């Protein structure tokens, strides 16, 4: 099966380990569907293969050729960027994606994660198969990414200089805000949003909120709970404190979990099935696809008993637990959910 078309490029600064292997890449201005003239300049100057994805290190001669070609073609934006990147001490590379095959290298993987966090591609629009196997588990420090094999020597060297190498996390994913901060968002605790998250304008992520890669919000949204990998939250929805969404990776599942527009998931509640627009999950109630539910009419009369997966796509429902019988119930809503506009209008 052929891979879907994807046209994306990025000039990046790569961090290498003591073995000169690339361990992470920062792309300040990734592009999707760039001008064909720009792509041809890069392919010619860097001697890329005629098809497929890949990356090249930009040596001094290649940099000179690129700068000349970009200037001649009037590519002022990329010319200015490359001039700035050319003076960096890190390894300068260019990555090109001409199809949406699974990432085969760290530069390809990081470019796709950047496309998501820059809002150039939405969750589930990119092939991220095998991503975990490509990315390296790294120490994320106040001096940037450090290979775990290099960490003891780096820590000792810092101590000998009378300073501390601060290790914030050991993970395959860095925090998004060290690479990009999308316009119009508030993030109370930046470590809780991974690179590869998609945050729509008007999104607020509070201290206990969490947004994984290949997941996010259309915006505006109030996130005080967990958005697991693969989950997308519709506009004007609210995830209450401590609530959770079951990710597509949970238990090896394949079903895409999502939350529609104008929804509310109450504090310490959660879902394991796609929630339609305008629905509410009562605080403390976790509803999975197989949860048995008593479906009530507006008068509170039992219509039938079904499973949550049978209610996918039905809008404006309230899911609650009967405090006397303990049964999970679902009934039509009369009032729509609305976010506090004041919380999102000044992001």
State the end-to-end CA separation.
Answer: 43 Å
What Rg, in angstroms, do the CA atoms define?
23 Å
> Any idea how many domains?
3
CATH superfamily of the largest domain: Hexapeptide repeat proteins
| Broad structural category | alpha/beta
The backbone outline, from C-alpha atoms, is: elongated
**Major sheet: order of its strands?**
9-11-14-17-20-22-26-27-24-25
Q: CATH topology of the largest domain, which one?
A: UDP N-Acetylglucosamine Acyltransferase, domain 1
Percent of residues in beta strands? 25-35%
CATH class of the largest domain: Mainly Beta
Task: Count every beta strand, where a strand is a DSSP E run of 2 or more residues.
Answer: 27
The helix tally amounts to 7
Quickly give the CATH architecture of the largest domain: 3 Solenoid
Biggest sheet architecture: 10 strands, mixed
Name the poorly predicted regions.
none
Helix content: 10-25%
* Average residue pLDDT: 93
Task: List descriptors.
347 residues; alpha/beta; Alpha-Beta Plaits; 3 domains; ten-stranded mixed beta sheet; 7 helices; 27 strands
Could you explain the architecture of this structure?
By secondary structure, the chain is of the alpha/beta class. It folds into 3 domains: 5-133, Alpha-Beta Plaits, CATH 3.30.70; 137-171, Wheat Germ Agglutinin (Isolectin 2), domain 1; 176-344, UDP N-Acetylglucosamine Acyltransferase, domain 1 (3 Solenoid), CATH 2.160.10. The protein has helices at 36-46, 60-72, 76-85, 106-117, 131-134, 151-160, 341-344, and strands at 5-16, 22-26, 31-32, 54-57, 91-99, 138-141, 144-147, 167-171, 186-187, 197-199, 203-205, 210-211, 215-217, 221-223, 226-227, 232-233, 237-239, 244-245, 258-259, 264-265, 270-272, 280-281, 286-288, 292-296, 302-307, 317-321, 328-332. A 10-stranded mixed sheet has the order 9-11-14-17-20-22-26-27-24-25, with no helix packed on it. Strands 1, 2, 3, 4 and 5 form a 5-stranded antiparallel sheet that branches. It has a 4-stranded parallel sheet with strand order 10-13-16-19. Helix 1 runs antiparallel to helix 2 (60-72). The chain is elongated. 40% of the residues are buried. The mean pLDDT is 93.
């Amino acid at each position: 099966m052929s891979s879907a078309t994807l046209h994306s490029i990025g000039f990046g600064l790569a961090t290498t380990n003591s073995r000169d292997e690339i361990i992470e890449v920062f792309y300040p201005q990734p592009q999707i569907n760039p001008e064909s003239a720009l792509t041809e300049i890069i392919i010619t100057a860097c001697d890329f293969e005629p098809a497929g994805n890949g990356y090249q290190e930009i040596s001094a001669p290649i940099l000179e050729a690129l700068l000349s070609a970009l200037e001649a073609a009037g590519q002022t934006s990329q010319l200015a960027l490359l001039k700035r990147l050319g003076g960096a001490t890190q390894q300068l590379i260019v990555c090109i994606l001409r199809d949406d095959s699974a990432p085969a290298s760290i530069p390809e993987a990081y470019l796709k994660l950047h496309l998501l966090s820059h809002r150039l591609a939405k969750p589930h629009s990119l092939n991220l198969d095998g991503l975990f196997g490509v990315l390296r588990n790294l120490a994320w420090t106040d001096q940037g990414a450090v290979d775990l094999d290099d960490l003891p020597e780096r820590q000792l060297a810092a101590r000998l200089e009378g300073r501390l190498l601060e290790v914030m996390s050991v993970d395959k994913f860095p925090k998004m805000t060290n690479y990009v901060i999308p316009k119009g968002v508030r993030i109370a605790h930046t470590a809780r949003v991974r690179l590869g998250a998609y945050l729509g304008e008007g999104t607020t992520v509070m201290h206990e909120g969490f947004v994984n890669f290949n997941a996010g919000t259309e915006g505006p949204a109030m996130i005080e709970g967990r958005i697991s990998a693969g989950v997308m939250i519709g506009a004007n929805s609210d995830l209450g404190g401590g609530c959770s969404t079951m990710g597509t990776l949970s238990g090896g599942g394949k079903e895409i979990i999502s939350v529609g527009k104008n929804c509310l998931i109450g504090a310490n509640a959660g879902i394991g099935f796609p929630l339609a627009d305008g629905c509410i999950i009562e605080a403390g109630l976790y509803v999975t696809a197989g949860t048995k539910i008593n479906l009530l009419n507006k008068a509170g009369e039992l219509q039938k008993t079904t499973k949550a997966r049978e209610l996918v796509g039905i809008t404006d429902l309230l899911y609650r637990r009967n405090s006397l019988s303990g049964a999970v119930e679902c009934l039509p809503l009369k009032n729509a959910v609305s976010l506090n506009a004041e919380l999102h209008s000044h992001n």
